[in-house]
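User: My instructor asked us to take a sequence, write out its structure as tokens, and then describe one feature of it. I'm not sure where to start. Here is the sequence I was given:
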Amino acid sequence: MTRERRNRRIGRVPAALLLGGSLLACGERADLIGPPTPELPSATATLSGTITQSMELDPALTYYIQGTTVVEDGATLTIPAGTLLLGDVSFTGSALIVRQGGRLVARGTADAPIVFTSSNPEGARRRGDWGGIVLNGRSNCNFPADECVGEGNSGPYGGTVTDDDSGVLSYVRIEYGGREVSFGNELNGLTLNGVGSGTQLDHIQSHFGSDDGIEFFGGTVDLKYAYVTGASDDSFDYSTGWQGRGQFWAAQQDPHDADNGFEVDGNEENFDAEPFTDPTIYNVTLVGKEAGTGSSGESTRGIIFRRGTGGAIHNVVILGFEKGFDVDQQETVGRVQIRNSYVYGQLNGQFEDQARDEEDGIDEEAIWMTDGWGNLTGIDPLLTDPFNLMMPDFRPAAGSPLTAGYAQPDTSDGFFEAVDYIGAFAPGMPQWIEGWTTSDQG
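Assistant: Let's start with the prediction itself. The structure tokens for your sequence are:
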């Protein structure tokens, strides 16, 4: 979320453009806007228009998402494990949007993930081929209620139902999504607008998306085992009063096209707006680009906190960005914490420039080294092979310092898991990304 005036006063999709007949059987066509779709193979079906009644897809079929496909209030779209869904590039703006009160239940498994990808053939898939997935809930938003409207014409969100339930995404891959609708108005791989804590999100990969990999606008939803690869903007982006929890997040950036590992904001117009952005996150690995590779100006910062955000992040490894750690605006200082973490191997300095510090009065290095926070800099975390784009290994290697100095989360309610290491991956154990994620680039 790097541009100004994001997430504001964006109109809804006109009802006349949302077509009825939410599921079309093989061979049937609807009067959809856009060039004709190539002849579909026999075992396919299409999703389009508005889904007003609950339905369950058939995992034996491949589904083409044609145009803006909307799950309306009161309807649940259930997607079984192993189902393949293709964002149809023949229709501008193909995306799956779940309105407030609608639900998406996509329960994959490690052996049979649910895959959302581009309809282009393998080898010809590109960022922005389709629009990705948007969930709209009734939980937090720190703009006025009439201004909590999602980007990409995805509809209103927000409210006071902190345990709102928008469904389940588990073992799900979202590939080649995201789309710029207009300047500063984009869809991401996965967009979470005011999503409540009754929603289950785990084992999600957002892969080679245009704009951000996973973005939260407010809400109270939790996210566990999240992997962002090749996002062209920020890997993880959260703002607008998000107050959920996270554990085991990892990002590997495209060395030629990427922005921040974390971009974290409060409210862009009122840095004291409540509810504050205030999540609790443990065990994160952020990998930018290896020295001597990639393009200048890409993988800008490992983490940037700004605009009055709060929250606490623990057990983070930041490796290979142009700058490691940045804090903007005095309202942010004192609200946000980062603890038991490593910053190492940044290409133009671990922290923001001293000249910038003198201008805004914020000394990032002093914040990082706050007494009692347990952070370190200048020590190689010794990850095994983190910059390998095809077969990455983010685990601590033998002799890694990441097995000491970690923070232990509160495991009493069952969400957080006990750890004895820093970063998103345990040493000597299989990586949780194995088997269900992809490293293909096109």
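For the description part of your assignment, you could build on this observation: Confidence is low (pLDDT under 50) at residues 1-38. Try explaining in your own words what that tells you about the chain.
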